[in-house]
Amino acid sequence: MGAGWIGTVARDYWIEPSHHTTWSSRGTTEGTAGRAKPSTQTRCWTSTGRKKQPEILKALDDLLRDETAGDPITGLKWTKKTSHTISRALKRQGYAVGADTVRRLLKKGHYVLRANRKRVNKRKDPNRDRQMRYLVCKRKQYEKAGFPSISVDAKQRELIGNFKNPGRTYRRRALDVLESDYPSDADGVAIPYGVYDTTHNEGFVVVGISHQTPEFAVACIRRWWLRIGKRKFPRKQHLLIQADCGGANGNRLWTWKYALQKLADECRLTITVTHLPTSASKWNPIEHKLFCHIEANWAGVPLVNYETIIKFIRTTKTETGLQCRAYLDRKQYETGNHISSEQKTFIKLEPHRVLPHWNYTIVPHQSFRKTEK
Question: What's the DSSP call for residue 185?
Answer without folding.
Answer: G
